[in-house]
Amino acid sequence: MHQSASFRNASLRRCAYHSPAARPPKTVGAIYLSKAREVGLFVFKAHLHQGYGKAALALIRAAHPGRMLANIAPGNAVSQRFFASQGAKLIQMTYELP
């Protein structure tokens, strides 16, 4: 994977993420940034562990600098490890009462 990955419609806050090496470009996932600066990231299973998540997060952070939040389900250890590896820190756990 090339480091110069790109977004389609990068000026939008919701973007499809494309593999820059694929010709024609291939969608490998999606990323969004809400008005509350909550980031969401999804990479299709076939493209996991190839650096796309890290590259997409770096690009959206460069396009929209500043503090961002990632709300991750307590049981999603893979996403927790990913965001921790990108420098995120745990700031809150939320409980729901039935």
Describe it for me?
The protein is built from two helices and four strands, in the order ββββαα. The chain has helices spanning 52-63, 77-85, and strands spanning 6-7, 14-19, 26-33, 39-43. A four-stranded antiparallel beta sheet has the order 1-2-3-4, covered by helices on one side. It starts with 5 loop residues before the first strand and ends in a 13-residue tail after the last helix.
Strand content bin = 15-25%
Task: Give a quick account of the main beta sheet: strands, pairing sense, barrel closure.
Answer: 4 strands, antiparallel
The strand line-up of the biggest sheet is 1-2-3-4
Report the structural category.
alpha+beta
CA radius of gyration: 14 Å
The portion of residues assigned to helices is: 10-25%
Question: How many β strands by DSSP?
Answer: 4
Shape: globular
- The succession of helices and strands, N to C, reads EEEEHH
Count of DSSP-assigned helices = 2
Mean pLDDT: 81
| Uncertain residue ranges | 1-14
Distance between the termini: 45 Å
Structure described in brief:
With 98 residues, the chain is an alpha+beta fold.
How do the helices and strands line up, and which of them pair or pack?
Elements: E1 6-7, E2 14-19, E3 26-33, E4 39-43, H1 52-63, H2 77-85
Antiparallel strand pairs: 1-2, 2-3, 3-4
